Amino acid sequence: MKKVIRYFLLLIGSFQLISCEDWLTVYPQNEQIRDEYWTSKEEVESVLAAGYVYFRDAVQNLIDWGELRGACIYNQYGSDLQIFQVTPDDGICNWASLYKVINMANSVLANAEAVHERDKTFEEAVMKSYLTEAYFLRALSYFYLVRNWRDAPLILDPYETDEIGYEKEKSSENELIDQIKSDITTALATGAAKERFEKDWATKGRATKWALYALMADVCLWSEDYAGAIMNCNEILNASSPFRPAFVKDPSKWYEMYYPGNSNESIFEIQWDQVNYNQSNNLPTLFGSSTPTYLYTERMLQDFIDETDITGINNAVRTIYGSYLPNTAAATDYKNATQGYIWKYTGIGFQEQTRPSNEQDPNFIIYRVADVMLMKAEALILRDDNEEGWQTAIDLINEVRVRSNLPKIEPVLSEIGEADMLQYVLDERKMELAAEGKRWYDLLRFGKRNGFKYRDRFLISEVVEYNNTANPSWIQSVLRDDDALYLPIWSKELENNKLLIQNPYYGIVK
User: Fold this and answer.
1) In sequence order, what DSSP letters do the residues of 236-273 get, joined into one string?
2) What is the pLDDT of residues 233-257, one digit of tens each?
3) Which of 39, 166, 396, 447 is most buried (most C-beta within 10 Å)?
4) CA 198 to CA 244: how far, in whole Å?
5) From the CB of residue 31, how many other CB atoms can be counted at a distance below 10 Å?
6) Residue 158: helix, strand or coil by DSSP?
7) pLDDT per residue over 57-98, tens digit each?
């Protein structure tokens, strides 16, 4: 089970009991709290910890936003998101969880330096390290906003008094991306981002310089800066530090990324610890084999069956007993499965054995090294129209495949084109990163690049093929509208902020 730093996690626990709203509202209205609250390094750390807590609270939204439109998993109880009929009244459109993280990050960035001047025990190196974490949390939150809403209010100052105006207009996707890159660049430029923390859980559960590089690579891919994506991937993949995250090549270690978690391959994952701090989550229930909310779609189940055919049950890594479990009485009968249970958050890496009742606390991985390797492969294909760059991309894909006991792909590069190469990457990401909140963003990124050059192949065709809850003709009509690719602003948000203008696809103009 995960080891933890007691002090930091107790601070997180305290923010679950005494929320940030609570410590703000104990002061009389119209009274500033800055001078009264920001007096010690412990208070800075507490607010920083609250940012991580709010991300933890957002995990089910991260799953829904990143997966349901991507059509590899579905909510068997129904979701407007997976049938592409979401409306502004749907709670799934509420971005509050992300802005809570942003407000905590803004608070740290605005006040840490003043606390450093007041509290002589608050060393400058520690302060700068906290700032790098705050920049990461803010950048990651805005990146989720960009990928889901495209345009959103850009807020860089904390709400510390009721005198600060709540209403703010949206900023464009380009403005948000510029700010995200600026935050990451600023954090890295301080030289204070840690390579590791004292305890393993913190190295994987708090923002390190590796997490900053992974996020920047992802943002560069999204914004079609392929040289930047490769450079930031290389900062991880070519690092010589003994504390770098590293690709776990041993197939027998693959499931350790999920149980017990915090593996050497991990870069950043959202943490829980039930044994030591009674911090559990409902991921094993949401994804389990009893009464799950989420299941693999029929087409995705077939992909897992096909891969299991290649390796056989005894040599399977990321298929049976890895990413999925068939609903058959015997594993050997997997070909006749009619449902595929999502197994990454439920099992313990040994056949059908499940997490015990006191370990209902799987982490949720945001970035890991295999993800970065496939990001680099994607960027190489799009940057280099030559066989050398493409062969490097194939080599990266094959490293991931070989780890799962799968044969290498060996295309004749002179006989295929860019789209064929990208298909290899997209297919590998689908299987390796299944149910990790990535699929919709992958399809949208592949489909929209270069003026929606690949809308039909990588967005519409993939969703139509894998979705088993919506009418194909409806899916096609929705995905041909650029605005429909993004969520509406929640109706209550429009009521509270009169400067917001609704996404035009959803038929409301404010």
Assistant:
1) HHT---TTS------GGGGGGGTTT---TTEEEEE---
2) 999 999 999 999 999 999 999 999 9
3) 396
4) 14
5) 10
6) coil
7) 999 999 999 999 999 999 999 999 999 999 999 999 999 999
> Per-residue pLDDT averaged across 117-139, rounded?
98
Q: How many residues does the chain have?
A: 510
407, 378, 408, 371: which is closest to 393 by C-alpha? 378
Alpha helices, H only, 404-438: 418-432
pLDDT at position 165 is: 73
How far apart are the C-alpha atoms of 228 and 378, rounded to whole Å? 12
Same fold yes or no, 24-68+92-193+488-510 and 369-485: yes
Query: b/e map of 303-322 (b: 16 or more CB within 10 Å)?
Result: bbbebbeebeeeebbbbbbb
Q: What backbone phi and psi angles, to 5 degrees, belong to 298? A: -60, -40
**What are the pLDDT digits (tens) for 414-423?**
999 999 999 9
Contact 374, 441 (CB under 8 A): no
Architecture field, domain 24-68+92-193+488-510: Alpha Horseshoe (1.25)
Question: Residue 296 contacts by C-beta under 8 Å, 6 or more apart in sequence?
Answer: 72, 73, 304, 324, 339, 340, 341, 342, 434, 435
Centre a 10 Å sphere on the Cβ of residue 65 and count the other Cβ atoms it contains.
23
* CATH class held by domain 369-485: mainly alpha
Nearest residue to 82 (alpha-carbon basis) of 303, 295, 339, 338:
295
Residue 507 gets the label, from left (phi > 0), alpha (psi -120 to 50) or beta, of: left
Q: What are the residues whose beta carbons fall under 8 Å from the beta carbon of 403, sequence distance 6 or more?
A: 247, 248, 249, 250, 251, 254, 317, 370
Model confidence pLDDT, tens digit, residues 326-381: 999 999 999 999 999 999 999 999 888 999 999 999 999 999 999 999 999 999 99
What ranges do the domains of the chain cover? Answer: 24-68+92-193+488-510, 283-362, 369-485
Stretch 428-438: mean pLDDT: 99
Average pLDDT estimate for 28-53: 78
The CA distance from 82 to 64, in Å, is 9
Count of beta carbons in the 10 Å neighbourhood of residue 451: 7
**Tokens in use for 57?**
């609270």
